[in-house]
Design brief:
Layout: E1 3-6, E2 12-14, H1 34-40, E3 41-47, E4 55-56, H2 67-71, E5 74-82, E6 88-91, H3 92-95, E7 106-109, E8 115-125, E9 130-135, E10 155-161, E11 167-179, E12 187-191, E13 203-205, E14 211-219, E15 225-229, H4 230-234, E16 240-250, E17 257-267, E18 270-271, H5 272-295, H6 310-313, E19 324-328, E20 334-337, E21 339-345, E22 351-357, E23 360-366, H7 373-378, H8 380-388, E24 394-397, E25 400-406, E26 412-417, E27 423-431, E28 436-445, E29 448-457, H9 461-472, E30 475-476, E31 479-482, H10 483-489, E32 504-508, E33 512-516, E34 520-524, E35 536-546, E36 549-560, E37 568-572, E38 574-575, H11 583-593, E39 604-606, E40 609-616, E41 626-635, H12 640-652, E42 654-656
Parallel strand pairs: 8-16
Antiparallel strand pairs: 1-16, 2-14, 3-5, 3-7, 4-25, 5-6, 6-9, 7-8, 8-9, 8-18, 10-11, 10-13, 11-12, 12-15, 13-14, 14-15, 16-17, 19-20, 19-30, 21-22, 22-23, 23-29, 24-25, 26-27, 27-28, 28-29, 31-35, 32-33, 33-34, 34-42, 35-36, 36-37, 37-41, 38-41, 39-40, 40-41
Length: 659
């Protein structure tokens, strides 16, 4: 999937802890300085959601949480401090927790528990990771003096206010400076004073109680922490938000990565909501632009027209009803990729299969027989309630995990049409307690749904959404179901892919079955195979070239008398391989073209199934580009004359239109 990663965060870990408490360490700051430090340092908080749209299998055991955590109306985000004249500073990444947040707006809370709303954002730098802001009705004139020329190897104090339990001060040394990673435009301060989750945005003080830096990051590999020198905050331009940071983008189907600069500015001051609106506009435009550039980066290697695509365009790699993703492997070949993991049984012959592709949850839902297909296709709550029966989504409370049984109605519900004109239903459900959105992208199929689900932090939901839409172009889907399911499915005209405009399926139980498409016409009667409500029909859609243009269309038609028999009829498309393809493709084509075994119309036994195969299409002398092997399978030992007669019946109802 597409990933957005801050350049500095590749080597460093942010200290923003969302309420994780720091552990106190003995410190020796002059006691007379402590009252001012306490009065000038605040906890950054966000109001907890007042409404939970989720339903759980049982009452949440909130008593397992610490008393303060379960009774607090706020989430603890980080630390901030006052530097005078209604000016407050915290880490930029602390502020960004509020972007598209499902929680209340960010505010400051003092040691007595009083909360102060943020008024205006005054300065901001994404790369330097700080923000300066004012408060509505600030508490007092208490503030921390600053020292813009701290001395190396002197004692410093990291100050944090976690969970509203009071100021935590820990001592260490200001050990060194290190250039920032992008261009060395300034130097981070490195210090040995302990800093825990919750310290982000707090002040780094000298022995005189003066601010020398803003605590921001923790080293991933050593016991050193990082702060931005306070002079970088003071010298930053007033009334301006500056975005100038290297951001790496990836897309799950290949390993190409773009490393570009997310750059822009906008005027301040702005309210908190106004700031997020302006920032979000820039970020969304940049994300969309980077994704487009990534997909267009190397067209000579991009599926379906780039190198490594030919083999997939010359085969039907899967007839499974579990979805796959077309992805490029380490050898540059495009192939199907997905990992099926488990199957959960539902009532009335329903089930859900779940698997994964990278960080995406893939699924196939076979709807329960008692559930109306129309209700399933048009009621997202019903769909999500079925998915939740897998038990994958649980809420952690202390050491317990409680199953989520319903998420209610989605907050967004729309249709996305992919490159192949397939209509994906995209729904978004909020999980307010986790500040996370569930993005579900599903495609109706005859027996239910196939789809993909992602869990997106609220601030990253747009990135996840455009990623899901782009990934839909690479989804490989087979259409499978019983005839009674097909009958209902085909009535959902607004949800069918455009490919079905050229497909005609008609049947009369016990009498006839007819299939027509641009490629072929196929019909049979019960003399060949039963035609009942539970008879199976699978259309193996694939990607192939049609008159030089890659299309997504039916390349394999498979039918069986019911879901349990191993009897079947099958007509599959085979295209002449190109010169650069592996010998296995050329060998198969040679056998098909010249009607060599097993395509010679002679019955054979394969794992207790009698199989007989012939080929429809021009003879070898005509130099055909496309041929159609025709298969008839029957379980158990069957004589050649009977198998040949069945094959003849099948061939008599087949007309090839593809050339």
């Amino acid at each position: 999937m597409m990933r957005r990663m801050r350049g500095a965060a590749l080597a460093l870990l942010m200290l923003c802890g969302l309420g994780m408490q720091a552990t106190a360490h003995a410190a020796s700051m002059e006691p007379t300085l402590l009252p001012n430090v306490q009065a000038s340092t605040f906890e950054v908080v966000a109001h907890k959601p007042t409404h939970d749209p989720l339903t759980y299998a049982r009452k949440l055991p909130m008593e397992l949480l610490p008393f303060q955590q379960r009774t607090d109306k706020y989430y603890s985000i980080g630390t901030a401090f006052a530097i005078g004249h209604n000016r407050y500073v915290t880490a930029g990444h602390v502020l960004m927790v509020g972007l598209d947040s499902l929680w209340g707006p960010l505010a400051l809370r003092d040691a007595s528990g009083k909360v102060y709303p943020i008024d205006k954002i005054l300065k901001f730098s994404l790369r330097k990771d700080f923000v300066m802001f004012s408060l509505k009705n600030p508490p007092s004139e208490a503030s921390l003096p600053v020292n813009i020329h701290p001395q190396l190897n002197k004692v410093v104090y990291a100050v944090g206010n976690a969970l509203g339990t009071g100021i935590v001060i820990r001592d260490g040394l200001y050990t060194s400076d290190t250039p920032e990673q992008q261009a060395g435009s300034w130097k981070w301060m490195r210090f040995s004073a302990a800093a825990s989750p919750g310290n982000s945005g707090g002040p780094l003080l000298d022995t005189h109680g003066k601010v020398v830096g803003v605590v921001l990051m923790k080293s991933a590999n050593e016991n050193l922490n990082y702060a931005l020198p306070i002079g970088e905050v003071l010298n930053a331009p007033d009334d301006k938000a500056v975005i100038d940071e290297r951001v790496s983008y990836q897309f799950d189907v290949f390993d190409t990565t773009l490393h570009n600069i997310f750059k822009g500015t906008f005027a301040l001051p702005l309210s908190q909501s106004g700031f997020f609106k302006a920032y979000d506009k820039l970020q969304r435009a940049y994300s969309k632009d980077q994704l487009a550039k990534l997909l267009a980066h190397d067209p000579a290697k991009m599926f379906p027209n780039g190198e490594g695509s030919n083999e997939l365009l010359h085969e039907v790699p899967s007839m499974s009803n579990f979805p796959s993703v077309v992805a490029r492997d380490n050898n540059g070949q495009w192939d199907l990729s997905a990992k099926r993991q488990r199957k959960v049984t539902l009532s009335d012959n329903g089930y859900i299969e779940v698997g994964s592709f990278r960080n995406n949850l893939l699924m196939h839902l076979r709807k329960p027989d008692s559930l109306s297909a129309t209700k399933l296709y048009h009621d997202p709550k019903t769909l999500m309630d079925l998915i939740l029966r897998t038990g994958y989504m649980k809420r952690r409370v202390g050491n317990d995990r409680v199953k989520i049984t319903s998420m209610g109605e989605p907050v967004r519900d729309f249709v996305h049409e992919d490159k192949w004109h397939r209509r994906w239903q995209i729904r978004i459900w909020p999980m307010p307690y986790a500040n996370t959105n569930v993005v579900l992208m599903t495609l109706p199929v005859p027996d239910g749904y196939v789809g993909m689900m992602q869990f997106a932090k609220a601030s990253q939901t747009y990135d996840y959404l455009i990623n899901a839409e782009a990934l839909s172009d690479f989804m490989y889907v087979t259409y499978d179901g019983m005839l009674k399911q097909w009958k209902t499915f085909l009535t959902q005209r607004d949800l069918l892919p455009d490919a079905f405009k050229h497909i005609h399926i008609d049947f009369d139980y016990g009498k006839r079955f007819d299939y027509r498409s641009k490629q072929l016409q196929l019909s049979w009667t019960p003399k060949l195979q039963k035609i009942d409500p539970e008879s199976m029909l699978t259309l193996g859609f694939s990607f192939f070239k049609d008159h030089g243009k890659v299309v997504w269309d039916v390349a394999d038609v498979w039918a069986a008398p019911n879901p349990y028999d191993r009897d079947a009829i099958n007509v599959a498309r085979v295209a002449q391989p190109t010169a650069d393809m592996e010998d296995s493709f050329k060998s198969t084509w040679h056998k098909v073209e010249h009607r060599r075994h097993p395509y010679d119309g002679v019955a054979r036994n394969d794992d207790d199934i009698m199989k007989i195969t012939s080929v429809a299409g021009p003879v070898a002398e005509a130099d055909p580009q496309v041929l159609y092997p025709v298969y008839y399978h029957s379980e158990g030992a069957q004589p050649q004359p009977k198998m040949a007669a069945k094959l003849k019946l099948l061939m008599s109802g087949l007309k090839i239109r593809d050339r």
